[in-house]
Design the sequence.
């Protein structure tokens, strides 16, 4: 499994390293810190599937405090590649902050 927070990043490699990165236990340049529960919401859907490659788009919304007003919204595009077992083996994030 490889994961890129940005398309130009060196990937985080391996499940254990990825879980540690997501939980904020491992720093990755440009990676987000762990979000506080109740401060984010997201919705994504696939828009293209070609063999083992899937592209999904959606939005991520963030609040400064749980149940507070939305302060940031990002448009997201994710490019994923799956193995023969249906597990994601490559994941790359592309996103832009909405004005």
Sequence:
């Amino acid at each position: 499994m490889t994961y890129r927070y940005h398309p130009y990043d060196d990937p985080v490699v391996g499940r254990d390293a990825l879980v540690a990165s997501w939980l904020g236990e491992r720093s990755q340049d440009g990676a987000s810190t762990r979000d506080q529960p109740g401060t984010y919401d997201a919705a994504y859907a696939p828009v293209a599937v070609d063999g083992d490659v899937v592209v999904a788009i959606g939005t991520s919304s963030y609040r400064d405090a749980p149940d507070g007003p939305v302060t940031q919204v990002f448009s997201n595009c994710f490019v994923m590649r799956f193995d023969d077992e249906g597990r994601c083996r490559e994941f790359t994030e592309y996103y832009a902050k909405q004005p």
